[in-house]
Structure formats: C-alpha cells, structure tokens
Design brief:
CATH superfamily of the largest domain: P-loop containing nucleotide triphosphate hydrolases
Radius of gyration: 24 Å
Order of helices and strands: HHEHHEHEHEHEHHHHHHHHH
Strand order of the largest sheet: 2-3-4-1-5
Pfam families: DNA_pol3_delta2, DNApol3-delta_C
Mean pLDDT: 90
Distance between the termini: 45 Å
CATH class of the largest domain: Alpha Beta
CATH topology of the largest domain: Rossmann fold
Largest sheet: 5 strands, parallel
GO biological process, one term: DNA-templated DNA replication
Protein name: DNA polymerase III subunit delta'
Number of domains: 2
Oligomer: single chain
Catalytic activity: DNA(n) + a 2'-deoxyribonucleoside 5'-triphosphate = DNA(n+1) + diphosphate
Number of helices: 16
Number of strands: 5
Strand content: 5-15%
CATH architecture of the largest domain: 3-Layer(aba) Sandwich
EC number: 2.7.7.7
Helix content: 55-70%
Length: 327
Amino acid sequence: MKTEETLTPQWKAKRILHHALTEQRISHAYLFEGPSGTGKLAAANAFAKALFCLQPVDGKACDSCQECRKFEHGNQSDVRYITPEGQSIKIDQIRQLQRDLSYRTTANRQMVYIIEQAEKMTIQAANSLLKFLEEPISPVVALLITSNEQAMLPTIRSRTMRVPFTPLAPEVMLEQLIAEGAAPTLARAAVQLSSGLDGARAILEKNGFAEIRTLVIQLGKESITKYTAAMITAAQKLFKGDFADQIELVLQLLLLWFKDMTQFQAGRQDKLVFIDQLEWISAHAFSRSFAGWIACMEHVLEADKRMKANVTPQLSFEQLLVKLQEG
C-alpha cells in the first residue's frame, strides 16, 4: 500500500532536499534530473531560496526575511542562471561563471548557480565545469537541471547528488488540474502531452489550445472519411490560419486521436482522451482493424520525423493525409 508520502508529487526529490536543509548537510552540487514539466526548475529555485533564507522553518524559506524578498524580486545578486545560447551552453559562459564566483566568494557568502538544460553543454563547457566541480569553492552550490541525464558526462554525474523527478500518473494530474478549475476535456489532453503538472498547466495556458484541439478533431474525422475535406481544412485552418506554428502540437494531438480508436476497441473507454467524442468514436472505431489504427499512428510519427528533418511542414502534412486515407 502506498503511504501518504509516496502519493505526494515528487516526494523523492522533496525528501532529499528537505533532509539536506534540515540537517545542514548541503552538497556542493546537485543534479535535478527527470522529464520536462515535472517541476525541476521550480524545485531548484525553492531550494536556492531556502539556502539564502535567514529564518528557515523546517527546511523551507520563511518568505518574509530580507534575503527571501530579494530572491522573490529577482534581486538576489548571489544567484547565477546559465541557459543555452542558441543550441548549446558554451565554454565562455562557464568561464565567465567561474570568474564571477571567484570574485564574489571573498566575503565567504553563500553562492548558488543554476544551469538549465545542462545536457546542452558543449564538451569543452562540460569539461570546464568538471574541473570546477572537482575543486568546489565553498560555500558555492551548483544546481544542474536536465531532462536527459544520459547525455551528460559520466564524470559530472558522479560528482553531483542526483535529485530524481519522475513522471506523474495522468490520473493524478487530471484530478489536480480539474480541482484547479481546468476544463476536463482540455485537461485530459494536456496530461497526455506532459510528464508533470507544470508542463500540463503550460499547455492549458497556451493560446488557442482549445481551438487547436477542435481542429484536430475535425482533421481526425475527415482524414479517414473525407480526404478532400481534410486537405481543405488543413490548408485553410492550419497553414493559412493562426496555428501554422503549432504543427507539432497538432501532430501530438492527432496521435492521441488515433490512439483513442485502439483504446475503444480494447474496451478501455475510460482511457479516452477525446471523451466528448465518444459517440463518433464508437461508430467508427471498428471501421479499421487494430493494426490499421496503429499504422495511422505510425504515419503521424513519420510526418513528425520528416518535419524535424526540415521537410516543408505543409508537404509533410499533405503526405500524411494521403497515407491516412490509404490506410
């Protein structure tokens, strides 16, 4: 039986950080690792804030002291954030960080640096950081955030304390989002597109998400019953409309649409994402075989790969519609 603690989102990460703060056993470096949208950056900020807090309570920042207020208003000068410049984190960024920290630690003040998307460090940058981790300057604390731990140097991983963030069960996220006031039909889709509550909330807050979902329903229906109509819809509402830059999201939702067909065939109606389309799904789910719907899903994934390989989005999507019509 699960304890109340294990039901709390990211309880493992919280336990590690809480123990470090309450026992005053702070490591020189932490690796916040897990899927995007699971709250890694928020946790890193909360941990950093607690490190600066003058009156922490049970391992948490008091939110009222001068240091907490400075952190909240972005005026905490002893925190450094490193993010990718373009596609990577470059060696010059790490060298500048090292210079800044070396200058500011003369007063023996607490210092924290947070590296987002740490897996995007170049080899040179990673090696430069490694030397810094091997000879840490006290009291400097490094907080590295990554969604791909295996893409980082093993030597860096071995010199940091791992703080794991795990995907939340969709059912848990759905219940929480509905409790927060999210529309159930939209929330069912958002939780399938994200590994955590933060990511799901970001999707729900995306401009036009409800309209994109409606468009996907139309395309999903027309793609297997009215090929010409699907082509017109894609041309007018997708590529000439407001959602031309949301093609990746459209494909992700379209994948869920065809997955719903397999869920219905398997008798798992409660797992449907497009639950409000149950009547239509029940009337068409058996128009193709289970393998046929799997093939549709594979076609969607292939279209996504073509676009990431720089094939024109409109051409890729039109080819997708052809393949979906053919079965």
